[in-house]
Amino acid sequence: MIGYTLRRLGQAVIVLLGLTVLVFLLEHIIPGSLARAILGPRASPGEIAAFDRVNGLDRPVVAQYLTFLSHVLHGNLGYSYRLNQSVDSLVVHELPNDLILVGIAICLALAIAVPLGVAQAARRNRAFDHVTTGASVLLYSMPAYWLGLLLIAGLAIGVHVFPPEAPQAASPAGVLADPRALVLPVITLTLVNVALFGRYMRSAAVDTLAQDYVRVARSKGLPARAVLLRHVLRNSLVPVVTLLGLSVPAVLTTGLVVEYVFNFPGLGLTYFNAAVNADYPVELGITVIVGVATVLGSLLADLAYAVLDPRVRYG
Amino acid sequence: MAEVETLLASVGVAGEDCDTLRAPKVLRGRARRQSFAAAFVENRMGVAGLGIVVTIAGFCFLGPLVYHSDQIHASIALTNLAPGAGHPLGTDANGFDILGRLMVGGQSALEISLAVALVATCFGVLWGAVSGFTGGVIDAIMMRIVDVVIAVPAIFLLIYLATVFRPTVPLLIVVLSLLSWLGPARLVRGETLSLRTREFVDAVRAAGGRSSRIVGRHIIPNALGTISVNATFQVADAIIILATLSFLGFGLPPPAVSWGGMLSQGTTYLLDGYWWEVYPAGLIVMVTVVAFNFIGDALRDTLDVRLRER
């Protein structure tokens, strides 16, 4: 296990380094230069040179990369000249809101998708399975914003049950203080993830149902319900850990869209606004965070899976 | 959807189960193609999906030949007209005919997503096959490169690149392909790892076949089932991501038309009850994606049987 962990950690470190190289390259493909992009078209050559000197952009590329890397390692993600604020303070400010939205949605999605998947597998190829599978194909064939818009049209404009806009408070406490406004964004994010997780749970449960120990449990006379709960559900839960870790990028992508549709004050919306204003440092800083989250997600998924299923370590 | 496939494959859960075990028989050439076609036709969802895709493609590319509408010149006199004579689906805020606009918007969506699926699949397949077949340090390096690019969700990179460069059709194809080849690369590498230890590969090697021949003539053709299923899901994913990009305002700039852009503009009038500016565009995206997903599911089920037949 130690060998596996070390090997997997080493891989993650290499990927994270690669990620910083990628983001560094992204910063350098800006046509003209970063200085031109930030100072604007009217900046004089002298001002551009001064900006480059102050920010170390006149140094060799490798030296610039090392400085960038050291900044990232120290938690310095750059500076937004448009917001006049450091990107890391922006992230620290917005991230808790995202965790609330994503956290609630993921928990709800799991609570729905896990039993649903097992139920689908138990009633495989019957009406219940066909209907729910059809619904989930429909759900993940919808762009997330379309689902959000349908919910707004139905539940906010059609019948005025929930407000069409997410909580507008900037702090996590404020977001939580307005639970009604949180409903529609949470439902949207939950439904999209139910479709993703449910499909996966169904496959896992179908696989488990075909195992010999399930047949043994059945043949020794255990009631069908007990077999499902004690054997199928528990064993199908193991891969859910992996699923959670690997679904980080999908969740972040949907998160961005949902935040945009409902104007939810999180990192996704900040990214969108930065893109509209060509605020490159904010975009790149958030890209680093998103990338790190993805890499950590898949690392944790692999490690957790190795703990839960010893066969992986020796594979 | 391709994402789901990769997820499933990466943790070793079979995508779909198959109840029918048939007696092994080897089919070649036309007989093989006919058996495939016959099995695919049996899958009603797949046939429905194929039918929908053909219909939508006909609607988008042949429709404008029959149904003429001006999608270049805005007209103040025609803004926000409800569906009626002359405009079966009404007009939008700039006076463009919605029905005609759906056709034109679909052209770029289909062109780009099909091209992306093709380019990304070809590149990913080569990358994955070479990586898996070579093994060792080269495999490790090639796969870490995949890990790095996959670490940043495509939509974030796309939005960034759209702010840096002005999106055009070729640029979107290149960028989307650059972000989409990773799934196929991982999938094919996995297949290659299991295929390269098989007897027929040893046989080619013993007969003096070179690595390029083993990969090109034996490994890739054997992984073709997995590859084609994934490619179908790639199309569906590309349509969604394109529509999302243009919905957020980072798609092709005007006068280019896109389904996502129409939806984005239409939502401004959601409160005014101009439903025809929102629902047709949203529905056509959804139906197209569902259709491609149906085809992918059907292909997988069909090829699954064939894999067992081999």
The helix count of chain B comes to 14
Portion in beta strands of chain B? under 5%
How much beta of chain A, percentage-wise?
Answer: under 5%
How many angstroms separate the termini of chain A?
Answer: 12 Å
Number of helices of chain A: 14
Widest sheet, order of strands of chain A: 1-2
What structural class do the secondary elements of chain B suggest? mainly alpha
Number of strands of chain A: 2
Largest interface: A-B, 60 and 53 residues
User: What overall geometry of chain B do the principal axes of the alpha carbons give?
Assistant: elongated
What's the end-to-end separation of chain B, in Å?
27 Å
Helix content of chain B: over 70%
**SSE sequence of chain A, one letter per element:** HHHHEEHHHHHHHHHH
Please give the share of residues in helix of chain A: over 70%
Low-confidence stretches of chain B: 10-24, 306-310
Record keyword descriptors for this entry:
heterodimer; A: 315 residues; mainly alpha; two-stranded antiparallel ribbon; 14 helices; B: 310 residues
Write the SSE topology.
The complex is a heterodimer of chains A (315) and B (310).
Chain A: H1 2-28, H2 34-39, H3 45-54, H4 61-73, E1 79-80, E2 85-86, H5 87-122, H6 127-140, H7 144-158, H8 172-176, H9 179-209, H10 212-219, H11 224-246, H12 248-262, H13 267-276, H14 280-308
Antiparallel strand pairs in A: 1-2
Helix pairs in contact in A: 1-4, 1-14, 5-9, 5-11, 6-9, 7-9, 7-12, 9-11, 9-12, 10-11, 11-14, 12-13, 13-14
Chain B: H1 2-10, H2 29-42, H3 44-61, H4 63-66, H5 98-134, H6 136-151, H7 154-164, H8 169-180, H9 182-195, H10 199-206, H11 211-222, H12 224-247, H13 259-267, H14 279-309
Helix pairs in contact in B: 1-9, 3-5, 3-14, 5-6, 5-8, 5-9, 5-11, 5-12, 6-9, 7-8, 9-12, 10-11, 12-13, 12-14, 13-14
